[in-house]
Amino acid sequence: MTDLLYSETEDDLRAAVRALLFDRADAQTLLGRIQTGDPYVPGLWKSLAGDMGAAGLLVPEKLGGQGASHREAAVVLEELGRAVTPAPYLTSAVVATETLLALDTESGPVAELLAGLASGRTVAVLAVPLSTAPGTVPDPSASPVTGVADAVVADVFLVPRADGLHAVPASDAVVEPRTPLDLTRPLAAVTTARATGTRLADAETATAAIRRGLLCGAGLLASEQLGLAEWCLEETVRHTRERYQFNRPVGSFQALKHRMAQLWLEVVNARAAARAAADALATGSPEAPLTVAVAQAYCSKVAVHAAEECVQLHGGIGMTWEHPAHLALKRAKSDQIALGSAGRHQDAIAALVDLPAPA
């Protein structure tokens, strides 16, 4: 039977990541960074990815990684979601890393890239729009590729082309920042010259590898959404306990208690779905595509609902720039279309279980 409970190792990892983010990337620090136009906290990626070793969790030890699993990576993403942290973890340590692991890891360029990613020295980004869903074959003729997340901090782009997958140094690419809804996950348009880069795999192998990377990314994105929803619920409960009206905490009002109780049930269900997806990916379950689709179809909606309730139940302060609730809402809305919309994943579920979707 699948065990979805957190292990002692996962709890220790969570505590370490949470402590780091509390010390280096708290809400006020993040709000200040966003106002400068550069949300990435200096030195944070080195501490998280390199010093703590979080970037190499999915990379085998023989390739320089930690040899852990998707369950541990999911815990990291839960904490990054709670803090709405600007970091290229999902794009580099998950999607790009999984894509490379599906290639010939005995190949020199692939092994070298994986070693760099595992150590945190290198940030690699798959040059596809953030909205690309698992199972989608990217258009190799698209130029520029728009909506690429974390492109502004990438050292290497993994570029799908007609003849396969190429690794292109960021210095050989043109990166044009765009203004995203979620200012904590910058987007950009990326243009690469056809003659640049190192070919890593042929077209057929590249297609399968990209699908694996996107599937893993979508599955672990559910953990980020879970962490975000948990923070929104906890922060809302804390605020409604401390905020008084008519000499009573507003959280004692029956209408608000019902709303928070409903949200708690949704978060509990989201935790089960996200953990199931992470475990299916970790064990290589044949049901992983279905489990991931279920997790994304559910968790994306829960994260948005939790963030909306957080803003509304904070009253006037929830509508201000100074309170971080708006960051959570924007990340939730951005994640709602990242790596496939809920509707796209619902269609995938219908196809996987041979249940035609309603007309």
Give a quick set of tags describing it.
359 residues; alpha+beta; 54% helix; globular; single chain; 4-stranded mixed β-sheet; 3-stranded antiparallel β-sheet
Walk me through what this model shows.
The protein is α+β, with helices and mostly antiparallel strands. The chain is built from 11 helices and 9 strands. The chain has helices spanning 8-24, 27-36, 44-51, 70-82, 89-101, 108-119, 203-242, 254-283, 288-313, 325-337, 342-352, and strands at residues 124-126, 145-149, 156-161, 164-169, 173-178, 187-192, 198-201, 244-245, 248-249. The chain has a 4-stranded mixed beta sheet, covered by helices on one side. The protein has a 3-stranded antiparallel beta sheet with strand order 2-6-5, with no helix packed on it. A two-stranded antiparallel sheet has the order 8-9. A hairpin with a 2-residue loop joins strand 8 (244-245) and strand 9. Helix 4 packs across helix 7 (203-242), helix 7 (203-242) runs antiparallel to helix 8 and helix 7 (203-242) runs parallel beside helix 9 (288-313). The mean pLDDT is 91.
Brief overview, please?
This protein has 359 residues and is of the alpha+beta class. It has eleven helices and nine strands. The strands form three sheets. A four-stranded mixed β-sheet has the order 1-3-4-7, covered by helices on one side.
Helix and strand composition category: alpha+beta
How big a fraction of the residues is strand?
5-15%
Largest beta-sheet details: 4 strands, mixed
Helix count from the secondary structure assignment: 11
Q: How far apart lie the N and C ends?
A: 36 Å
> Which parts are unreliable, with pLDDT below 50 for 5 consecutive residues or more?
none
* Topology pattern, helix = H, strand = E: HHHHHHEEEEEEEHEEHHHH
- Described by the principal axes of the CA atoms, the overall outline is globular
Helical fraction equals: 40-55%
Main-sheet strand order equals 1-3-4-7
For the residues shown, what is the average pLDDT? 91
Number of strands: 9
Instruction: Tell me the radius of gyration.
Output: 20 Å
